[in-house]
TrEMBL record:
Keywords: Transferase. Residues 2-236 form the Nucleotidyl transferase domain. Gene3D superfamilies: Hexapeptide repeat proteins (2.160.10.10), Spore Coat Polysaccharide Biosynthesis Protein SpsA, Chain A (3.90.550.10). It comes from Candidatus Uhrbacteria bacterium GW2011_GWE2_46_68. InterPro entries: G1P_thy_trans_l, NTP_transferase_dom, Nucleotide-diphossugar_trans. It comes from the Bacteria. SUPFAM superfamilies: Nucleotide-diphospho-sugar transferases. This is Glucose-1-phosphate thymidyltransferase.
Length: 360
């Protein structure tokens, strides 16, 4: 089998972070989001991987992920042609690479726990045309939702229904054979002018052999800041214990509790408390600070006399504040500091970009 990962789009809900970085490269546990996706795909036995990217982003993606050698796989980057015309069009755009093969189509902002191997094995064993992965959710109206017949077979898939026919969401994990391209030729753009993957799946239900599996662990669509932070936390819980290694010398007076990873050449001063799970990159400086659970700190960050918890801190960030930072995403090269020597001395001094969110 082959795999196609969708890694384009503009991620407007994650601005201003995504003004300068593709969403799929946002670090979770200090690895790009796609790193975790590719790891799951390769663990399932698929090593021929194609990554759909925005025009002009091939080199950025290649610099972040390489050619697949890190996984013993082969990665090909495919630029999206014809603009943003829907999720189904992403697959159609890669037809020359997928025609004649069975393939996994994975939306790159989906994070899952557990293995994809049982899905692959069933799809191949039963020679299905399509296999869909479902997950129970509290708000199915935000997703494509399956409707079932009385015998439990799939009747159709409804996109973002006001009255959901079930409490399942169709996740961004799909298995197809190359009849996909026949299905694509038989659907029309939706009211918003896009080729919907929901319509492809409904075509398969009407014309092919379709199966479905429920994801019994967690599944997270990381489309919002809150979901990103939750995905970051879930990944930390899923990492093997041997991932958490302290590669720098830490003073015996410093308190390091639980699962903590600290990269090389990082300085931790004696008056620090680090309570895991926490991942701290290389060449960081943590001084007189508390780093709380589910925090990721990128390479080169400097944190002084501060408290940071349940947050994603990008590389080369500088934090020096007496205000406690929680549930935050702080972009590359940003700084968060207390007012020092400016007038007036009360109040909050800020430079806030478009689409930012600040709570004081």
């Amino acid at each position: 089998m082959k795999a196609l990962i969708a890694a384009g789009g503009r991620a407007t809900r994650l601005r201003p972070i995504t003004w300068t970085i593709n969403k799929h490269l946002i670090p979770l546990a200090n690895k790009p989001m796609l790193w975790h996706v590719i790891t799951k795909i390769v663990e399932a036995g698929i090593k021929d991987i194609y990554v759909n990217v925005n025009p002009g982003e091939q080199e950025v993606m290649r610099e972040a992920l390489g050619d697949g050698e890190a996984w013993g796989a082969h990665i090909t980057y495919v630029e999206q042609r014809g603009g943003a015309r829907g999720v189904a069009h992403v697959v159609a755009n890669a037809e020359e690479y997928l025609r004649g093969d069975k393939f996994l189509f994975f939306l790159g902002d989906n994070i899952i726990l557990g293995s994809l191997r049982p899905f692959v094995e069933r799809f191949l064993r039963e020679d299905l045309d399509c296999l869909l992965a479902f997950s129970r959710v509290k708000d199915p109206q935000r997703f494509g939702v399956p409707e079932f017949r009385e015998d439990g077979t799939l009747k159709r898939v409804v996109e973002k229904p006001v009255q959901p026919p079930s409490d399942f969401a169709v996740t961004g994990i799909y298995f197809y054979n190359d009849r996909f391209f026949e299905a694509y030729q038989n659907i029309q753009p939706s009211a918003r002018g896009e080729y919907e993957i929901t319509d492809v799946n409904t075509w398969f239900i009407d014309h092919g052999r379709v199966g479905y599996e429920e994801i019994t662990g967690w599944w997270k669509d990381t489309g919002t800041p809150e979901a990103l932070l939750e995905g970051n936390a879930l990944i930390k819980d899923d990492l093997p214990k041997n991932h958490y290694a302290v590669e720098s010398e830490v003073p015996i007076e410093a308190q390091v509790q639980g699962l903590v990873k600290i990269g090389i050449n990082t300085v931790i001063t004696p008056d620090c408390l680090i309570r895991g799970p926490v991942v701290i990159g290389s060449n960081c400086h943590i001084e007189g600070s508390y780093i709380g659970p589910y925090t990721s700190i990128g390479d080169g960050a400097k944190i002084v006399r501060s408290e940071v918890e349940h947050s994603i801190v990008f590389p080369n960030v500088f934090i020096d504040t007496r205000r406690r930072i929680i549930d935050s995403i702080i972009g590359k090269n940003a700084q968060v500091v207390d007012v020092q020597g400016t007038h007036p001395r009360s109040g909050h001094r800020m430079v806030i970009g478009e689409n930012s969110s600040v709570e004081l």
